[in-house]
Amino acid sequence: MSASTTDLGALVERCHVLVCCGTGGVGKTTTAAALALEGARRGRRVAVITIDPARRLADTLGLAGTHDAEVDRALWDPEASAPDTGRLTALMLDTSETFDGLVDRYAENEEQRDRILENRFYRNLASALSGTQEYMAMERLHELHETGDYDLIVVDTPPSRHALDFLDAPQRLIRLLDNRVFRVMMAPARGALRIASAALHAFVRQVGRVVGTGVIDDIISFFRAFEGMEEGFRARADAVRTLLAEDSTAFVLVTSPRRDSIDEAVYFADQIALHGLAIDGLVANRVHPAFAAPTDVARLRPRAAALREAPTGDEGSGPDAEAARRRLADRYDTLADLAALADRERVLLAGVATHMGTTAVYVPFLDHDVHDIAALHTVGRYLVG
Amino acid sequence: MELAQFCASSRIVIVAGKGGVGKTTVVATLATMAARSGLSVLVVEVEGKSGLSAALGLPPLAYEEVEATPGLRVRALSADDALLEYLDQRGLHRISGRLVRSGTLDVVSTAVPGMRDILLLGKVKQLEQSASAPDLIVLDAPAAGHAITFLTSARGLQDAVRVGPVRTQADEVVAMLADPARCQVLLVTLPEETPVNEVAETAFALEDRAGIALGPVVVNQCLPSRWNGSPHAVADATLARVDLPADEAVALDAATAFVGARRAIQQEQIARLAKRLPLPQIQLPFLDEEIGPDAIGLLADVFAAQVSAMKAPT
C-alpha cells in the first residue's frame, strides 16, 4: 500500500462503488448514508444499500421497502442547491429476496426454480449459512451496477463476526454446493465409484443419526434440485469479485476511537490487503472534540487544583465566591479530561492510519444523535471536508 | 440487595448487547465483581475476539481454562470444538474428523439452523452441570443482532428436528434457558436513542420467544458526574474575582456546553429506557482510559455499589 491521504470528497466524485466496512456499532450505516447524500449533492446519481438501519434513519430516508426508491429531492436538497443531475436512491437489503432472485435468474425452468425455493434446506440457507447476508449485499450491489442507472453505489456491509465475509461468502457458498459427499450421494452408483459411494452412504447415515434423517433427505433433495445451476452462480460470483477489484471501487473502513474497534480495524485492513485489495479511506466516528490542545492539559490541571484551595489576597471570599470557584475548578477539570481524551483517541487513530498507509477522517462525537437529513449532511461535511 | 445474593441468583448469566455497546467490558466487570464476592466464576467467550483477554490482562484465550485472578477463570469456546467433543463422547470419534474435512459440517449446520448455537449452549449446560462446576458462569454472547437468534435457536430447532441426539440437546438447552434459577440474561446498552430502542426490542423478544429471565439492564458509558458545569465561566470568574483569559473562557464554555448537551441526551434516554423496560438499571460510567484490569476493577466497584442499593426481589 502506498501512503495516501483519505480524501472522501474525491472518492465520492470519482468512484462507481464505495464499500463501507468495519465492525458493528461504529456508525457504518450512517457513514454510508452520509457519503451517498454528498454524492447526490455533487450531481451524481447515487444509490445506497443499507443493512438493518436504525428505524429513524430508515424513516428519514423513506426506506419503506427493499426496492430502490428514490428519496424525495426536497428532502435531501432542501435548498435546491445541488446540480439537477443529482439523484438519491436508498434501499434496505433483504437477504432472502435477493437470494430468491438469484435462483430465479439461474434456474433452467420454472419447475427447477420452484423445487429449490420450496426446499427446506434452501429456506435455511439465507438465515443459517454464515456470510449469506454479506454475499447478498454484494449481489444486490452487482444488480444495481448492471442497471446502469447509477453513477455511484454506496454499500453498507453487515456487522460481521468475520471481517471479510463479504469477500469470501460467494466462495463459501460455491464450496458448499461443490460438497463431494453430497454430490456422490445424489449420483447414481456406477462402476468404480460404487465402493466409495457405499462408504459415503454409511458416513451420511451416521451423520443422519446425529442430526435426524429428515435433515439429510432435505439436503440431498436440495442438491438434486440445484444441479446445473452451479455454473451460473460461479460466473456471478466471479463478476462480483471483478467489480470489487475495479479501480473505480473503493473501500472505506469505519471505526470508532475505542481500542477494541481499532484493533478490529487493523485486523480488517490486514485481511483486505491479503486479498490484494486496499483500504482507500479511513473514517473514525464519534471522536471526542478537542476544546484545548493536549499541551494545555499540564496547565489546566494545576489551575483546577489552585481554585479548590483557599483564595489568595484579592480574590473573592464568602460562600457565593467559593461556590463559583468550585464550579470553575470543575470546568477546568472537565476541559482537561476532554483534551486528554481527545488526544489519546487521536494518537490511537493516527497509529492505525499510519499502519494502513493513509490518514483518518474524524467525525466528532456530535452533541445530538444522527437521525435526520440535516444531521446526515453535518456528518457528510466532516467526511468530505 | 446483598452482593453475594445478587451474583448467585442464577448459575449462568448471559451478557448480550449490540456491537459497540461495551458488552465485553460488562462481562469482565460482572465476573470480577462476582469473584470478589467470593464465588468461583468461569467466563466463557464464544467469538474468538481479543477484547475480553485484554480487559482481564490475559493473553489471547484458548479452549483450555486459564485463571485470571483467584476464583476467576476464563476460556474460549467454538461450535466446532463443541461438536467434536460431543461426537467423541458418543463414540462417534471416527466421523467427526471427516465431518470437518469434507465440508459436510458446513452443509449439515446450514441444514439445521442454529445447530452451532445449540452446541455452544449445550457445552455451557455441560459445564454448569459438571461435578467441578463453578458457582457462576458468565457467557459473553455473540454480538450484533445475533443474540436473539443465538438464544431462540433451540426452540426453532425443536420444530425442525423431531428426533436424534441434536434434538435432545435442544430440549435440554430450552429447559436450561427457561429456568431463572439456572440462567438469566443481562442486557447491555448505551444511553442513546438507537441502542435504547434496540435493547427494548431484544428484551421483549427474549422474554416472549425464549422465555428467558432478564436481569438488570446495564447502561454503559454514562458520562461521569464530575463532568458538570454550565457554560457561564465568565460569570463565575467575576463572582469569585478570579482572572480568566478570554480564550480560556471560550474553551471552558465549549467543553461544558458539549458535555451538557450529551448529558441531556443521556438523561432523556435513560428515562425513556426506564419507561419502556421495567427492569432495574445499572449505570456504568464512561472511562477515559484504556479498558484493562484497573478500569474493570473500578467498574466492578461502581456495579457493586448499585447492586447494594437495589431492592431485593420479594
Topology record:
The complex is a heterodimer of chains A (385) and B (314).
Chain A: H1 8-14, E1 17-21, H2 28-41, E2 45-50, H3 55-60, E3 69-70, H4 73-76, E4 87-92, H5 95-106, H6 110-118, H7 120-128, H8 132-147, E5 152-156, H9 165-177, H10 180-186, H11 193-211, H12 213-226, H13 230-245, E6 249-255, H14 259-274, E7 279-287, H15 297-308, H16 319-356, E8 360-364, H17 373-384
Parallel strand pairs in A: 1-5, 1-6, 2-4, 2-5, 6-7, 7-8
Antiparallel strand pairs in A: 3-4
Chain B: H1 3-7, E1 12-16, H2 23-36, E2 41-45, H3 51-55, E3 66-69, E4 72-76, H4 79-89, H5 93-101, H6 104-111, H7 115-129, E5 136-140, H8 146-160, H9 165-178, E6 183-189, H10 193-210, E7 213-222, H11 233-240, H12 246-276, E8 281-285, H13 293-309
Parallel strand pairs in B: 1-5, 1-6, 2-4, 2-5, 6-7, 7-8
Antiparallel strand pairs in B: 3-4
pLDDT < 50 stretches of chain A: none
Give the % helix of chain A: 55-70%
| Strand order across the largest sheet of chain B | 3-4-2-5-1-6-7-8
Binned, the helix content of chain B reads 40-55%
Shape of chain B: elongated
* Overall geometry of chain A: elongated
Please describe what this structure looks like.
The complex is a heterodimer of chains A (385) and B (314). Chain A is an alpha/beta fold and 385 residues long. Chain A folds into 2 domains: 8-178 and 237-288 and 365-384, P-loop containing nucleotide triphosphate hydrolases (Rossmann fold), CATH 3.40.50; 294-344. Chain A contains 17 helices and 8 strands. Chain A starts with 7 loop residues before the first helix and ends with a helix. With 314 residues, chain B is an alpha/beta fold. Chain B has a single domain (3-221, 280-309), classed as Rossmann fold (3-Layer(aba) Sandwich). Chain B is built from 13 helices and 8 strands. Chain B has an 8-stranded mixed beta sheet, sandwiched between helices. The model of chain B has no long low-confidence stretch (mean pLDDT 88). At the A-B interface, helix 7, helix 9, helix 10, helix 11 and helix 12 of A face helix 5, helix 6, helix 8, helix 9 and helix 10 of B.
